[in-house]
Task: inverse folding
């Protein structure tokens, strides 16, 4: 599990402030993902990356931006946090080229709990 | 549109009872499906994937394309099976998750 770390693990902030969550991996995996976990909604994809500087939107990307300047780091930024963005955020990594029969198996981080007051 | 549906938010069973966690999907191509599990205070982790047709911790899941289902089953539930279970569908290397089912196995 040490192959993927998220920081900070907990954060409390106020509405309107910018927030950046960091995901760091040591596995050299090509794909990185940001999900949010909410009761009743399960995990929903925010953004993902398929290589350095290659990113794309997921299901719930509004209000979020991402950057990937290095293979190992994937940053999620909330430009102006809102209370609806209170959630647990999970980073995940994968490398389908290495997977069993090409299956895209995700490895998850421990999560970052964000509270927006 | 691709979608994963888990109709039960909570499934409560007694130890030793059979368990079936339901998962239905909507996908136009040939689906790749997974079950992920999150135990208390642990990371979300892969439980099993249909492509390898394996049994993990006594759990199995069979893909039924006719019913578009991928239900997770275990003949005899154990207390340590209590966890949150997510069904997931791979859509062009993006996993779409269901809303999850919490399994509670009572002694």
Result:
């Amino acid at each position: 599990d040490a192959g993927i770390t998220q920081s900070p693990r907990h954060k409390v902030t106020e509405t309107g402030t910018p927030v950046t969550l960091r995901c760091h991996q040591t596995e050299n995996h090509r794909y990185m993902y940001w999900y949010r976990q909410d009761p009743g909604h399960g995990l929903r994809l925010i953004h993902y990356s398929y290589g350095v500087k290659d990113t794309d939107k997921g299901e719930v990307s509004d209000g979020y931006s991402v950057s990937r300047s290095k293979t190992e780091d994937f940053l999620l930024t909330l430009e102006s946090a809102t209370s609806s963005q209170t959630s647990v955020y999970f980073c995940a990594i994968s490398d389908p080229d290495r997977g069993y029969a090409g299956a895209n198996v995700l490895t998850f981080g421990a999560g970052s709990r964000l509270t927006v007051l | 549109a691709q979608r994963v549906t888990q109709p039960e938010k909570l499934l409560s069973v007694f130890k030793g009872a059979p368990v079936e966690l339901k998962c239905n999907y909507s996908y136009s191509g040939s689906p790749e499906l997974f079950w992920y599990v999150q135990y208390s205070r642990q990371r979300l982790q892969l439980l099993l994937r249909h492509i390898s047709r394996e049994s993990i911790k006594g759990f199995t899941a069979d893909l039924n394309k006719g019913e578009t289902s991928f239900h997770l089953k275990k003949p005899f539930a154990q207390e340590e099976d209590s966890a949150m279970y997510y069904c997931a569908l791979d859509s062009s290397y993006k996993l779409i998750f269901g809303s999850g089912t919490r399994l509670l196995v009572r002694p």
In short: Chain A touches chain B at residues 1, 31, 33, 35, 40-45, 48, 50, 58-59, 90, 92, 94, 96, 100-101, 103-106, 108-111 (CB under 8 Å).
